[in-house]
Amino acid sequence: MHIPDGFLDYTVCAITYAGSIIFWILAFRKAGKNLTDKQIPLMATLTAMFFAAQMMNYPIIGGTTAHLLGGPIVALTLGPYAGMISMTIILLIQALFFGDGGITTLGANVWNMGVIGVFIPYAVFVFITKIRRSRRALLIGAFIGAFLGDVLAAVFAGLELGSSSIFPYAAPIAVAAMGIHHSFIGVGEGIVTAGVLRFLLKTRPDLLQLPQFKLLTKEL
Amino acid sequence: MNKDRSLILVGVLLSLILVVIGTIWLSHSQETLDRIAEHFGAKKSAIWNPPLPEYEITGFQGSTMMSIITGSVFTLLVLCVAFIVGKGLKAKAKTQD
Protein backbone atom coordinates (compact mmCIF):
# COMPACT_ATOMS: atom_id res chain seq x y z
CA MET A 1 0.00 0.00 0.00
CA HIS A 2 3.09 2.22 0.03
CA ILE A 3 2.73 4.91 -2.64
CA PRO A 4 6.10 5.65 -4.28
CA ASP A 5 7.37 8.99 -5.59
CA GLY A 6 5.89 9.78 -8.97
CA PHE A 7 2.43 8.31 -8.41
CA LEU A 8 0.84 11.44 -6.88
CA ASP A 9 0.83 14.99 -8.19
CA TYR A 10 2.10 17.82 -6.01
CA THR A 11 -1.38 19.04 -5.00
CA VAL A 12 -2.33 15.65 -3.55
CA CYS A 13 1.11 15.38 -1.91
CA ALA A 14 0.69 18.82 -0.31
CA ILE A 15 -2.86 18.12 0.95
CA THR A 16 -1.90 14.76 2.48
CA TYR A 17 1.26 16.23 4.04
CA ALA A 18 -0.87 18.99 5.58
CA GLY A 19 -3.29 16.44 7.05
CA SER A 20 -0.46 14.30 8.41
CA ILE A 21 1.37 17.31 9.90
CA ILE A 22 -1.75 18.26 11.89
CA PHE A 23 -1.91 14.74 13.32
CA TRP A 24 1.88 14.66 13.94
CA ILE A 25 1.58 17.85 16.03
CA LEU A 26 -1.34 16.38 18.00
CA ALA A 27 0.45 13.05 18.39
CA PHE A 28 3.71 14.54 19.67
CA ARG A 29 1.73 16.66 22.16
CA LYS A 30 -0.53 13.90 23.45
CA ALA A 31 1.27 10.55 23.02
CA GLY A 32 3.57 10.92 26.05
CA LYS A 33 0.67 11.78 28.34
CA ASN A 34 -1.23 8.62 27.46
CA LEU A 35 1.80 6.32 27.33
CA THR A 36 2.89 4.65 30.60
CA ASP A 37 6.52 3.75 31.39
CA LYS A 38 5.57 0.06 31.12
CA GLN A 39 4.27 0.58 27.60
CA ILE A 40 7.53 1.95 26.17
CA PRO A 41 9.06 -1.54 25.67
CA LEU A 42 5.72 -2.61 24.14
CA MET A 43 5.85 0.36 21.74
CA ALA A 44 9.40 -0.59 20.68
CA THR A 45 8.51 -4.27 20.30
CA LEU A 46 5.31 -3.73 18.30
CA THR A 47 6.97 -1.16 16.02
CA ALA A 48 9.80 -3.61 15.25
CA MET A 49 7.38 -6.52 14.82
CA PHE A 50 5.21 -4.69 12.31
CA PHE A 51 8.25 -3.37 10.45
CA ALA A 52 9.19 -7.05 10.02
CA ALA A 53 5.57 -8.10 9.33
CA GLN A 54 5.32 -5.55 6.50
CA MET A 55 8.11 -7.47 4.72
CA MET A 56 5.72 -10.40 4.36
CA ASN A 57 3.56 -10.20 1.22
CA TYR A 58 0.53 -12.46 1.24
CA PRO A 59 -1.04 -13.55 -2.05
CA ILE A 60 -4.63 -12.25 -2.24
CA ILE A 61 -6.61 -12.28 -5.51
CA GLY A 62 -5.77 -11.77 -9.17
CA GLY A 63 -2.08 -12.50 -8.64
CA THR A 64 -1.68 -9.52 -6.33
CA THR A 65 -0.20 -9.41 -2.84
CA ALA A 66 -0.77 -7.34 0.29
CA HIS A 67 0.81 -7.01 3.72
CA LEU A 68 -0.44 -6.41 7.25
CA LEU A 69 -0.33 -2.77 8.38
CA GLY A 70 -0.05 -3.03 12.17
CA GLY A 71 -1.92 0.22 12.76
CA PRO A 72 -4.90 -1.35 14.56
CA ILE A 73 -2.88 -3.22 17.15
CA VAL A 74 -0.65 -0.24 18.00
CA ALA A 75 -3.77 1.95 18.25
CA LEU A 76 -5.53 -0.39 20.68
CA THR A 77 -2.51 -1.14 22.85
CA LEU A 78 -0.63 2.19 22.89
CA GLY A 79 -3.47 4.57 22.05
CA PRO A 80 -3.91 6.28 18.67
CA TYR A 81 -1.33 9.05 19.17
CA ALA A 82 1.59 6.79 20.12
CA GLY A 83 0.29 4.37 17.50
CA MET A 84 0.56 7.02 14.81
CA ILE A 85 4.15 7.76 15.87
CA SER A 86 4.99 4.03 15.70
CA MET A 87 3.64 3.86 12.16
CA THR A 88 5.55 7.03 11.20
CA ILE A 89 8.84 5.47 12.39
CA ILE A 90 8.19 2.40 10.23
CA LEU A 91 7.19 4.40 7.14
CA LEU A 92 10.08 6.86 7.47
CA ILE A 93 12.73 4.12 7.73
CA GLN A 94 11.15 2.20 4.84
CA ALA A 95 11.14 5.31 2.61
CA LEU A 96 14.62 6.57 3.52
CA PHE A 97 16.56 3.30 3.47
CA PHE A 98 14.63 0.96 1.20
CA GLY A 99 12.68 3.15 -1.20
CA ASP A 100 9.49 1.43 0.03
CA GLY A 101 7.11 4.37 -0.31
CA GLY A 102 8.47 7.78 -1.24
CA ILE A 103 9.62 11.10 0.14
CA THR A 104 7.06 13.30 -1.64
CA THR A 105 4.40 10.70 -0.84
CA LEU A 106 5.37 10.20 2.82
CA GLY A 107 2.50 12.48 3.86
CA ALA A 108 0.04 10.32 1.91
CA ASN A 109 1.44 7.07 3.26
CA VAL A 110 1.35 8.38 6.83
CA TRP A 111 -2.19 9.66 6.26
CA ASN A 112 -3.36 6.27 4.94
CA MET A 113 -1.52 3.89 7.25
CA GLY A 114 -0.72 6.11 10.24
CA VAL A 115 -3.89 8.20 10.53
CA ILE A 116 -6.73 6.28 8.83
CA GLY A 117 -5.16 2.89 9.63
CA VAL A 118 -4.80 3.85 13.30
CA PHE A 119 -7.62 6.24 14.24
CA ILE A 120 -10.43 4.36 12.45
CA PRO A 121 -9.76 1.05 14.28
CA TYR A 122 -9.55 3.01 17.54
CA ALA A 123 -12.83 4.88 16.92
CA VAL A 124 -14.68 1.72 15.88
CA PHE A 125 -13.33 -0.15 18.90
CA VAL A 126 -14.41 2.64 21.28
CA PHE A 127 -17.86 2.78 19.65
CA ILE A 128 -18.48 -0.98 19.86
CA THR A 129 -17.22 -1.28 23.44
CA LYS A 130 -19.49 1.60 24.46
CA ILE A 131 -22.52 -0.25 23.11
CA ARG A 132 -21.59 -3.52 24.79
CA ARG A 133 -19.08 -4.10 27.55
CA SER A 134 -17.70 -7.62 27.59
CA ARG A 135 -14.55 -9.50 26.67
CA ARG A 136 -16.24 -10.70 23.49
CA ALA A 137 -17.21 -7.14 22.52
CA LEU A 138 -13.58 -6.07 22.97
CA LEU A 139 -12.41 -8.74 20.56
CA ILE A 140 -15.24 -8.13 18.07
CA GLY A 141 -14.52 -4.39 18.23
CA ALA A 142 -10.83 -5.05 17.62
CA PHE A 143 -11.61 -7.30 14.64
CA ILE A 144 -14.13 -4.96 12.98
CA GLY A 145 -11.98 -1.89 13.69
CA ALA A 146 -8.91 -3.51 12.17
CA PHE A 147 -10.85 -4.69 9.12
CA LEU A 148 -12.37 -1.26 8.48
CA GLY A 149 -9.06 0.48 9.16
CA ASP A 150 -7.29 -1.57 6.49
CA VAL A 151 -10.06 -1.24 3.92
CA LEU A 152 -10.45 2.53 4.44
CA ALA A 153 -6.66 3.06 4.32
CA ALA A 154 -6.69 1.29 0.93
CA VAL A 155 -9.72 3.28 -0.24
CA PHE A 156 -7.90 6.52 0.66
CA ALA A 157 -4.83 5.36 -1.27
CA GLY A 158 -7.13 4.70 -4.24
CA LEU A 159 -8.75 8.14 -3.87
CA GLU A 160 -5.34 9.84 -3.78
CA LEU A 161 -4.24 8.02 -6.92
CA GLY A 162 -7.55 8.78 -8.61
CA SER A 163 -7.38 12.46 -7.67
CA SER A 164 -3.89 12.84 -9.11
CA SER A 165 -3.54 14.27 -12.60
CA ILE A 166 -1.05 11.45 -13.26
CA PHE A 167 -3.98 8.97 -13.23
CA PRO A 168 -6.77 10.70 -15.17
CA TYR A 169 -10.23 9.19 -14.63
CA ALA A 170 -8.73 6.45 -12.45
CA ALA A 171 -10.63 7.16 -9.23
CA PRO A 172 -13.49 4.63 -9.58
CA ILE A 173 -11.16 1.83 -10.69
CA ALA A 174 -8.47 2.65 -8.11
CA VAL A 175 -10.91 2.97 -5.19
CA ALA A 176 -12.81 -0.22 -6.08
CA ALA A 177 -9.68 -2.30 -6.72
CA MET A 178 -7.87 -1.10 -3.59
CA GLY A 179 -10.93 -1.51 -1.37
CA ILE A 180 -11.89 -4.97 -2.63
CA HIS A 181 -8.36 -6.38 -2.69
CA HIS A 182 -7.46 -5.06 0.75
CA SER A 183 -10.63 -6.43 2.34
CA PHE A 184 -8.89 -9.84 2.18
CA ILE A 185 -5.87 -8.65 4.14
CA GLY A 186 -8.29 -6.70 6.37
CA VAL A 187 -9.73 -10.01 7.59
CA GLY A 188 -6.19 -11.19 8.38
CA GLU A 189 -5.42 -7.91 10.16
CA GLY A 190 -8.62 -8.32 12.19
CA ILE A 191 -7.71 -11.85 13.26
CA VAL A 192 -4.14 -10.82 14.20
CA THR A 193 -5.35 -7.75 16.12
CA ALA A 194 -7.99 -9.66 18.09
CA GLY A 195 -5.51 -12.51 18.67
CA VAL A 196 -2.76 -10.23 20.03
CA LEU A 197 -5.29 -8.44 22.29
CA ARG A 198 -6.61 -11.76 23.59
CA PHE A 199 -3.05 -12.87 24.33
CA LEU A 200 -2.21 -9.62 26.14
CA LEU A 201 -5.48 -9.71 28.12
CA LYS A 202 -4.48 -13.14 29.41
CA THR A 203 -0.76 -12.61 29.98
CA ARG A 204 -0.06 -8.86 30.43
CA PRO A 205 -3.30 -6.96 31.08
CA ASP A 206 -1.17 -4.30 32.82
CA LEU A 207 0.05 -3.22 29.35
CA LEU A 208 -3.48 -2.42 28.14
CA GLN A 209 -4.18 1.09 29.33
CA LEU A 210 -7.22 2.17 27.31
CA PRO A 211 -10.22 2.87 29.61
CA GLN A 212 -12.19 0.05 27.94
CA PHE A 213 -9.70 -2.56 29.18
CA LYS A 214 -9.53 -1.07 32.67
CA LEU A 215 -13.34 -1.06 33.00
CA LEU A 216 -13.52 -4.66 31.85
CA THR A 217 -10.77 -5.78 34.24
CA LYS A 218 -12.66 -4.14 37.12
CA GLU A 219 -15.95 -5.74 36.16
CA LEU A 220 -14.69 -9.28 35.61
CA MET B 1 14.54 -11.64 34.02
CA ASN B 2 11.94 -8.89 34.47
CA LYS B 3 8.72 -8.83 32.47
CA ASP B 4 9.73 -5.90 30.24
CA ARG B 5 12.98 -7.56 29.18
CA SER B 6 11.10 -10.79 28.45
CA LEU B 7 8.60 -8.84 26.34
CA ILE B 8 11.36 -7.26 24.26
CA LEU B 9 13.19 -10.58 23.90
CA VAL B 10 10.06 -12.42 22.74
CA GLY B 11 9.22 -9.51 20.40
CA VAL B 12 12.71 -9.53 18.88
CA LEU B 13 12.68 -13.29 18.36
CA LEU B 14 9.23 -13.16 16.78
CA SER B 15 10.29 -10.24 14.55
CA LEU B 16 13.38 -12.10 13.37
CA ILE B 17 11.23 -15.13 12.53
CA LEU B 18 8.93 -12.83 10.52
CA VAL B 19 11.96 -11.42 8.67
CA VAL B 20 13.14 -14.93 7.75
CA ILE B 21 9.66 -16.04 6.60
CA GLY B 22 9.15 -12.75 4.75
CA THR B 23 12.48 -13.05 2.96
CA ILE B 24 12.35 -16.72 2.05
CA TRP B 25 8.67 -17.44 1.37
CA LEU B 26 6.71 -14.21 1.17
CA SER B 27 9.05 -11.77 -0.53
CA HIS B 28 7.26 -11.64 -3.90
CA SER B 29 5.37 -8.36 -4.06
CA GLN B 30 2.82 -7.41 -6.70
CA GLU B 31 0.58 -4.91 -4.98
CA THR B 32 -2.77 -3.77 -6.35
CA LEU B 33 -1.43 -0.22 -6.32
CA ASP B 34 1.41 -1.19 -8.68
CA ARG B 35 -1.05 -3.03 -10.94
CA ILE B 36 -3.22 0.10 -11.19
CA ALA B 37 -0.16 2.22 -11.95
CA GLU B 38 0.92 -0.23 -14.62
CA HIS B 39 -2.59 -0.18 -16.12
CA PHE B 40 -2.58 3.63 -16.38
CA GLY B 41 1.03 3.84 -17.54
CA ALA B 42 2.32 5.72 -14.48
CA LYS B 43 5.92 5.19 -13.44
CA LYS B 44 7.85 5.60 -10.21
CA SER B 45 10.21 8.57 -10.26
CA ALA B 46 12.29 8.45 -7.10
CA ILE B 47 13.66 11.77 -5.88
CA TRP B 48 15.92 9.96 -3.44
CA ASN B 49 18.23 7.03 -4.07
CA PRO B 50 17.77 4.73 -1.08
CA PRO B 51 20.92 2.91 0.06
CA LEU B 52 19.13 -0.48 0.14
CA PRO B 53 16.58 -0.55 -2.68
CA GLU B 54 14.11 -3.47 -2.46
CA TYR B 55 15.72 -4.49 0.88
CA GLU B 56 18.91 -5.60 -0.90
CA ILE B 57 22.53 -4.51 -0.62
CA THR B 58 24.11 -3.37 -3.88
CA GLY B 59 26.37 -6.17 -5.09
CA PHE B 60 24.41 -8.81 -3.17
CA GLN B 61 21.12 -8.68 -5.10
CA GLY B 62 19.34 -12.00 -4.97
CA SER B 63 21.21 -13.17 -1.86
CA THR B 64 18.60 -14.45 0.60
CA MET B 65 21.11 -14.50 3.46
CA MET B 66 22.08 -10.84 2.92
CA SER B 67 18.40 -9.86 2.77
CA ILE B 68 17.76 -11.68 6.06
CA ILE B 69 20.74 -9.92 7.67
CA THR B 70 19.60 -6.53 6.33
CA GLY B 71 16.02 -7.11 7.50
CA SER B 72 17.20 -8.27 10.94
CA VAL B 73 19.59 -5.34 11.45
CA PHE B 74 16.92 -2.82 10.49
CA THR B 75 14.31 -4.54 12.67
CA LEU B 76 16.66 -4.03 15.64
CA LEU B 77 17.26 -0.43 14.52
CA VAL B 78 13.49 0.20 14.40
CA LEU B 79 13.18 -1.30 17.90
CA CYS B 80 15.89 1.06 19.24
CA VAL B 81 14.44 4.13 17.47
CA ALA B 82 10.92 3.38 18.77
CA PHE B 83 12.26 2.82 22.30
CA ILE B 84 14.19 6.12 22.27
CA VAL B 85 11.21 8.01 20.80
CA GLY B 86 8.91 6.44 23.43
CA LYS B 87 11.29 7.47 26.22
CA GLY B 88 11.53 10.97 24.74
CA LEU B 89 7.73 11.35 24.52
CA LYS B 90 7.32 10.23 28.13
CA ALA B 91 10.12 12.50 29.37
CA LYS B 92 8.57 15.47 27.52
CA ALA B 93 5.16 14.74 29.07
CA LYS B 94 6.69 14.50 32.56
CA THR B 95 8.42 17.89 32.23
CA GLN B 96 5.11 19.44 31.10
CA ASP B 97 3.25 18.11 34.20
Task: Please summarize what this structure is.
Chain A has 220 residues and is mainly α. Chain A has one domain: Orthogonal Bundle (Arp2/3 complex 21 kDa subunit ARPC3), CATH 1.10.1760.
Walk me through this protein's architecture.
The complex is a heterodimer of chains A (220) and B (97). Chain A is mainly alpha-helical and 220 residues long. Chain A has one domain (10-219): Orthogonal Bundle (Arp2/3 complex 21 kDa subunit ARPC3). Chain A is built from 8 helices and 2 strands; from the N terminus they run ααββαααααα. Chain A has a two-stranded antiparallel sheet. In chain A, a hairpin with a 5-residue loop joins β1 and β2. In chain A, α4 (80-98) packs antiparallel against α5 and α6 (135-163) runs antiparallel to α7 (171-203). The model of chain A has no long low-confidence stretch (mean pLDDT 93). Chain B is an all-alpha fold. Chain B has a domain at 52-97. Helix content of chain B is 66%, strand content 0%. Chain B is extended. The two termini of chain B are 32 Å apart. The model of chain B has no long low-confidence stretch (mean pLDDT 89). Classes of the chains: A mainly alpha (220), B mainly alpha (97).
